[in-house]
Input
Amino acid sequence: MNRIDETFQKKKKLLSIYFSAGHPELEDTFPILCALQDSGVDMVEIGLPFSDPLADGPTIQKSSTRALLNGMTTEKLFDQLQNIRDSIHIPLVLMGYFNPIMQFGIKRFCEKCLSIGIDGLIIPDLPVDIYHQKYKPLFDQYNLYNMFLITPQTPEERIRYIDSLSSGFIYMVSSASVTGVQNTFGNTQEDYFKRIAQMKLNTPQVVGFGISNAETYRAATRFSSGAIIGSAFIQFIEKKGVSAIPDFIKSIR
Amino acid sequence: MNRIDETFQKKKKLLSIYFSAGHPELEDTFPILCALQDSGVDMVEIGLPFSDPLADGPTIQKSSTRALLNGMTTEKLFDQLQNIRDSIHIPLVLMGYFNPIMQFGIKRFCEKCLSIGIDGLIIPDLPVDIYHQKYKPLFDQYNLYNMFLITPQTPEERIRYIDSLSSGFIYMVSSASVTGVQNTFGNTQEDYFKRIAQMKLNTPQVVGFGISNAETYRAATRFSSGAIIGSAFIQFIEKKGVSAIPDFIKSIR
Amino acid sequence: MKYQVDEKGFYGDFGGAYIPEMLYPNVEELRQNYIQISESESFQKEFKSLLSDYVGRPTPLYFAERLSKKYNTKIYLKREDLCHTGAHKVNNTIGQILMAQRLGKNRIIAETGAGQHGVATATVCALMGIECIIYMGTLDIQRQAPNVARMKMLGAKVRAAESGSKTLKDATNEAIRDWINNPVDTHYIIGSVVGPHPYPDMVARFQSVISAETQAQLLKKENRDYPDHIIACVGGGSNAAGLYYHFLENPRVNIIAVEAAGKGIDSGKSAATSALGKEGIIHGSKTLLMQTPDGQITEPYSISAGLDYPGVGPMHAHLFRSQRAEFISIPDKEAMDWGLTLSQMEGIIPAIETAHAFAVLDVRKFSREEVIVFNCSGRGDKDLETYIDHFKL
Amino acid sequence: MKYQVDEKGFYGDFGGAYIPEMLYPNVEELRQNYIQISESESFQKEFKSLLSDYVGRPTPLYFAERLSKKYNTKIYLKREDLCHTGAHKVNNTIGQILMAQRLGKNRIIAETGAGQHGVATATVCALMGIECIIYMGTLDIQRQAPNVARMKMLGAKVRAAESGSKTLKDATNEAIRDWINNPVDTHYIIGSVVGPHPYPDMVARFQSVISAETQAQLLKKENRDYPDHIIACVGGGSNAAGLYYHFLENPRVNIIAVEAAGKGIDSGKSAATSALGKEGIIHGSKTLLMQTPDGQITEPYSISAGLDYPGVGPMHAHLFRSQRAEFISIPDKEAMDWGLTLSQMEGIIPAIETAHAFAVLDVRKFSREEVIVFNCSGRGDKDLETYIDHFKL
Ligand SMILES: Cc1ncc(COP(=O)(O)O)c(C=O)c1O
Ligand SMILES: Cc1ncc(COP(=O)(O)O)c(C=O)c1O
Output
């Protein structure tokens, strides 16, 4: 059974953390993963940095650029993760744009993920339709879950369609926006969370984009199965360093 | 009898000098005239300065501008010349562009000239045709000679027409050019001087433009009745001062 | 033909050829030939073909919807700004280069102030492979660097006029001096309806394509071949002459000429010749010009280098004197504001010269049914520096 | 229709809509409506009327006599440089603003590199009175000050893209981010045949007026409605797409695409995507792009800001892959020299982008009877600084 499914069965209000691999320092991937697992985080999205991350806000753009300057590459990340499953047991998701994956070779990429023990992928610019037509069999073959995004503008019919093709979880973008930090969620967002909850989808939903603190985490998980923190976490480790990670996680829940 | 005709009857190879009234200093008009007469100059063209002297080269442009800055005006020049005939007996010609004369009032201008004892006018931008149609009777009435220019490009027929309307002298422009200094005349110029001489015009011809020294004076007057020096004279008094005028004239003949 | 030139080269009292004898052969050659040449079939064919294939004519007659709504009238823009090189000036230089070729000239000179006429001249000289020398005041060379660069790109030599106030008037003097010095091989392409006869008439004829097209376009759009009002800015007056040409004798058409008031008519810094000028002679023609009581030509001022001329063409002097046209003068500030307004309401950044014309909308009332044609004489790219400075963009 | 887009949005292997889900509603709305809207009678009427009365179409097909003589062939220039705002870009922005209005959008965003597309977008927004935000790399804002000023004159807000290399690619990223953040009221006017389907096809359709006119004009001038060669520069590829459009399926027409070699294909400073690029995804479409082995998009280089794009549109990737078009790349120096040559031989100062296309004349031989059409995509005024610096004018 995929670790993601397992985790959703065991836990409510999952806390998941996104970070850009290779940031702040090239070799921080492993220490960050350990610190997150030790602090009780339920799942991690490891960001494969990209030169042109067009769905991301300034924080993740900057951390990606920094990671690339530090020398991060797809090869390098796989090297860093080679023996990760010796120490890390929580679900690991790779999140990256489609072009670097294409250049690596999609099949080869899937093989690598399988051999390392990656549980799933989030590829924001690989739309569900193209995935469906071209890549699903391959991903299935390597037992890789592919997670899709939905937004407040996604029509109900399309949400059902995405649900039908989803495995793992649905990444529920909190508002129509790129990634970034928000301090509170408003009524429209709550309405949206409720609306999706009422759809009773097959796939659990995890809220992402704009979650930054205990308050937004609580609001996001009131009607969903979990939340992902990205930009706020990245800003935190940039300021306080990797060693302070437990403090950040404690501040959330 | 007009002083100009008188002079041409008495003298061969006339030497005439042009200067811009009000230059180098506003009150230099009288001293310059005296010095010229005393040095044996046969005739003088007094330049009425104009802001836009489009038939003149850099030297006369500059002296005109300077004269205007010094405060020279048509009124002022007439004031300076009011009693000039008490001292100066050689022919005096006013040379100026048409616009300042128009603004002064053409009739009034003629009256002034008559009362002072000006013998003639050279108005480079009053073409012979317009003069003929509109202003000849007025000039005749005030006994003012109007002198016209011809150039190497003037067709023979037109030269004859100009000759027929001329009084005083014909101003023979040495080459197709604006005023300025030349050191020698070439073959084309000599051919042109000869060609005009052979036309046996009624009106004597005086060569102007480009005459600067004894050599060019001699070449110009070989086939004509006289020559006018402008730019070279102005450059000289600018450098050496009004008091040195006799030296300049001596250097010419 | 009351408002056209007569056989002697005069518009009423104005015009003629007050030129030094040195220019006589040149000007006379032109005078004797310009009509015959320009009306010849071969000339017309080449002229029309270049205007269409090279210049981009006909220029549109554009109905300005937002502006019309705001001023509750019908506003059309004759889009001379779309001409190759960015202004109406090229209509004239195309005509004159063809004229020069037929007169056997192999060297072209021209004066320029803002540089638009210089660029238009350099352009046609490049097109024909003819040597080109442009006179431009030292001060203007500094102020209009991009146009200087354009002329050089086009292979023209730009010569600095150092005399006088070092601007357009002095550049014109220098060009005339050059012509005097080169009477045989050189044609002088004057840039507006100024200078000695036949220039004002010749330039007006070349520019008259503007009103000819306007007639045909109005017929299509408004079902009649004339507007109620025609409005143009006047520097020397060539774009205005072009727009007015075929409407001069039609009394139903009201003519408005817009001059640059500069910092205000009474400020001593103005170019409103009709208000401030007196009859006189400038650059070979009798017209209205700004001058001292003593007859010295005064330096005009306008924020737009193309309106910064101390006279107007003799046709315009006559239109003013005869009251055929209404003359309005617009200060710098209002013109600049209209540059911005036209940009933001119609997406057209006009030359500052052109912007002056539009300011009439704030000065005169028009009724809902009236049809107004503005001559959009040029585009504002050349004026960006001035706009940037003025509006702190 | 082998070379046109298929129903799924692909040109052969290239194209598609590789977009984040956040953009799905916008892109899908456009995809479902763009053909129906743009083919509707009311749209066509308004589009054609603006192209003619506002943009100044048809642009001439100009026979370049001196150039033809020198190269002993028949050279025509399609004069997109005469379009309002100075390049072909406005054909597309006119189409898209009408599209946006019909989709009920009241806010426009766009990216720009050299500023030409930004100006063209700001222009149509001013024309329609719609809010306009232009994204432009910080570096480009510094390099292209006059176009920044033009956009501001036109009332657009210019927002600096500070990320990445601070040029066009990053401005595009920022514009996409804005669109993600404003999915309901905003239309994104992409400036070339790039981006997710249906943009490449929509933009190509709007630009196809270029080849439609060329057909009609050739029929008049050459008695046949196609040329032997069509040549255009390719940045994203919109002016090329416009020139090629109606000739794509005509095998008698040889297609040449000209890319910027920059300082040389192997110099590491180039924008010759066809030579240096590999299949990948950029800005929502699968195409050829310049990238590291690791799939990071590399910063292209060309002296012309408009060719300085790391990809080409999917249509061009397909034309290259299928060998329907011949791709040639021209280095900075040759392009600059051609800017000067065209200026001095034909009196047309071209955009540096455009100048690249003409350099083909030194690389390929053409015969005397062959008819070549170059797309003269834009005028060089925006590039004067670069020309001045390069040639020390
Ligand atoms: C755009 C534009 N409009 C008007 C003028 C004024 O000239 P004219 O009065 O001859 O049309 C100029 C002169 O440079 C100009 O560039
Ligand atoms: C004049 C001109 N030509 C060509 C281009 C390149 O764009 P495209 O390849 O989309 O035509 C640009 C882009 O700014 C341009 O301004």
Notes: The longest strand of chain C covers residues 254-262. Chain C has a mean pLDDT of 96. DSSP finds 16 helices and 14 strands in chain C.
